[in-house]
Task: structure prediction
Amino acid sequence: MTELQLTIPAQDRDSGGVRLKPREVREWLQNLPYMDALRTLQLANQQLRLLNRQVIAPGARLEILDEFLRTYQRLSETAPGDPADAAALQPLLKQLSQNIGFGYKILVHVLANGKAGFFDARHLPAAMLGAVHALGQQLVHCYMHYKRVPRALWGECLTVFRHAQSSNRSGYTARLGGNEPIAIDASFRLIALLKLTDPYQLRPGMMAALQHYFRSHIDLTHMSSLDHDPDAAILMVPAGDQRLHSSESDGIAIDITALLKQIRNDILRLEKQQDQTRIGGMAAGVPGALLLATLKKILGYWEERRERTTSREDAAIGIELVVGLEAAYCAINGNRPFDAKLYLTGDEDNHINIGAPAAPGATPRNPPAAKFQCVTTNRNSGGLGICYRGTSPSPRVGQLLAARRAPPTPGNWVLGVFRWLAESESMNGFDAGLQYLAGEPVAAVIRPSATNETAGEFQPAITADQKRGEQSVRTIIACVNQLHTGAAFALYDNRGVQHRARCIELLESGSGFDRFIYQLLS
Result:
């Protein structure tokens, strides 16, 4: 019998000063300072690393890991209000998940390879369930934060699951850390579905939302043999870390026919009402429009493997970019940041001079946009692949950007949007895919109509004349939720002329911006 190969720490430490009894560990974890999440995570990681180096009876280790899993879930569900605190907690949460995974892999290694007694072998199914779950948590953490997945991670998840399949234990069901009961194969299917959503192209927050959605509908999927029903919708889970494949001889087949039907029905409901609270399995707080766009993207990706319509060519060109709507506005506006008070002249309701320099002594509220130096890796007519190394500007998928050729021969600014994003393997920067939106953007200022009688606040915006087939259309990009289809607004162009305009079609709702087709009313 071939030995199951997993990466585990050596159990070579003595037990001096380490709590080895489940009851002692439970009491210790319950008394941690949970109001100080950072300190609690540090202590939990330190203790679990020590436990992973001890020789512990399989049954006792299983109980101990379940207690640490409860602690992990408690801390991961407590979101700090300060973004800086949340950023500091994430590496420690990931580390705790890794240490829990090591604990379960130690159990699988010992039990599957016959290194424990006959009586202890009964714990193997629970150990495999815990290992698949813990490895899946680590994968999801990488996807949520656009981090590269370590090469061994997916392989070990597959190794454990295949062992469960071959030993006829994949249907084993239990509660992990007090959660709802789940089977080994259902836990694996959940991870596989998330992996095959093309996670590096998902908008921020959608990985967690989809995890909740797929978990609620996991019974609509099941494992399938390679000689499956030709009418069934099959996802092939790749053996390596490639993206979605239509077929692969050593892959694992998952039948998603019923799940696709559910997704289509939910898309229809969202198109009618834009209310995600009526969609089964969706967590509160996910915007209906964002959920609709995500489900449509996944449906199209699963139903039809889309090939590129244009080929990419290798290219290594220096470019500089700015991230976000206000930064793009500033760059396009000759490095003058938006501040309506600096440009108002005469009758404030009728004239705004966007391109004029600031009045003497005036200080803009926002500094000029920071420019980041990148290198292209490839390009085609629709966009660029880029590589950035340095202190990251922390972009998000779906966020607006402006890019141009870097000095000493800079070109004109081009508007684009981040379509996929992945942290570099060195964790010093990122790789990304940019899609062009407009080639000749123009800085503008808008004043949305708050009511029929009053006007809203002045807002930065960017306009561009573009082609839709043979038709020329005017497009405008504004801060999210400032405009909507049918909304009238005042538009001040770069000559200071005021126009009345109306949005007639929403083209895209991105991270921090909305893009509309508009028409002039006067």
About this structure: The CA atoms of residues 226 and 249 lie 8 Å apart. Confidence is low (pLDDT under 50) at residues 242-249. The first helix runs from residue 22 to 30. The radius of gyration is 27 Å.
